[in-house]
Prior knowledge:
- One of its GO terms (biological process) is isoprenoid biosynthetic process.
- Its EC number is 1.1.1.34.
- By secondary structure, the protein is of the alpha+beta class.
- It contains 15 helices and 20 strands.
- 32% of the residues lie in helices and 28% in strands.
- Strands 11, 12, 13, 14, 15, 16, 17, 18, 19 and 20 form a 10-stranded mixed beta sheet that branches.
- α4 (223-236) crosses α14 (484-507).
- The radius of gyration is 28 Å and the shape is globular.
- It starts with 6 loop residues before the first helix and ends in a 6-residue tail after the last helix.
Amino acid sequence: MFRLIPQVLLKQLYTRNSLHNTASGFAFSLKNRLADATFTGLSLIRIDGQAYPAEAFQLELDGQAALPVDGISVSHPLAFPLRRSVTVYASAEPLSAGKHLIELTLQTQPFGKITLTVEDELQHERADEPSINAQRVVIPRSTSDDTSPDAVRQRQEFLGQYTQTRPQHLTNYSFDPAVIRGNCEQFVGVAQVPIGLAGPLRINGEHASGDFLIPLATTEGTLVASYNRGMKLLNQCGGVTCTVIDEGMQRAPVFVMHDARAARDLARWVAAHEPHLRAEAEATSRFARLQYITPYQTGRTLFLRFGFTTGDAAGQNMVTKATLAACTYLLQEVKDVAHFYLEANLATDKKPSFINTLQTRGKRVTAEVTIPKDLLVRELQVEPEQLDRHARLGTLGAFMSGTNNNGLHSVNGLAALFIATGQDVACLAESSAAIATSEILPNGDFYGSITLPSLIVGTVGGGTSLPTQQECLSILGCSGSGKVYKFAEIVAGVVAAGELSLAAAISSLDWVSSHESARQSTPSSQ
């Protein structure tokens, strides 16, 4: 990965508007936005063509003690992991006001020798004006260990002093804050969401087979009861049949060429060099596997939609890293790219879209059931014809409103499961898409199905390893590797239960009465 780094990417290492004078010279900042690396030496630094010796510079990483650059070598490297920032301090004459050309030649691993050339304008503050940073309220943060008991306590005290409140439930938690590293910055406490238990739900899947208790995290009254009612009916039918149909996670970089013909030629180049791009992308991960690169061209702009499988992880970060590696290779080989961005909305990350209804994002999974007519009438007080007619009218209403869903409330069960099991809740924007179908069979029984075309879930990574969330995944038998298909089938079955229950409630006029009953049973806060 990153055997050669194009200048268009190298420039992103430099932090814009960071150049400023100091009491002993000047300084600027770099940030690793590519991949984990080590810094093994500084070969050259020039400002406006003037060379400076390495001994004139020191590096300060994230507020740690400054290190002399000439003491860093292959035998004494400096770790420079992804997202790490470093301030470069020079002992030299201050720079004049205006723009300056900065040229750096660095020795690194695994990038080798890289040369960075950027232009930045000297930042300054007037002596008679207070510093903006001096006026700014800053939440306490530790650069060495921000989840240590002392760091968390300082933030909690700051919170109480700044807001004149004394939180008790917010700051009361049962786990070591160290476990949330990589999941939450500036940790101060937890949101305690009630979790209700529904089921058991019988799933007849290829990966999930059996009866499952379902933990649902929600503050919406009647939600757990409604899903429980749907599960009861599904069980009486012998369970719900769930099938994972497809999977994929995308990243869609964009390239602006000099004209439309060049953009067309780039698309052809990509098709011819797909094996090379695949090799670069897959070298970044043990799990990311490139399935396709689909071009979409408008004028001189070319989008490339990279589609991957990502194992048991939801995989957004994984495919971002893999796609960047492939694009790095492309940018090194293709010289006439005018502009490049790693994403420009065609992957529709955390946004509903029609493209994901047709081309899977996450998991495409279907849940289906056949309900005998007598059972439907006895248990839910509706005729099959009532449900089927309501479904057709719902499809018409969805078409008229332009929604991504012709079902009723897939996002209700999804949100409750996502919170309980540590999924990325923002992915509900995509995952809520649903395609519901129904029909009356020749014998009068009711057949219904619901397909989730962009269900973004994982059983490893993200928030799935947090204590409560891991326990909820374990309740489902879905914690850890090799379980994501099983989990996807369970999720689809839960959604089917909720759709069936609400559809029956609306058709039988139980919808309002059930919510009113829940409202009246809720203790008054007045």
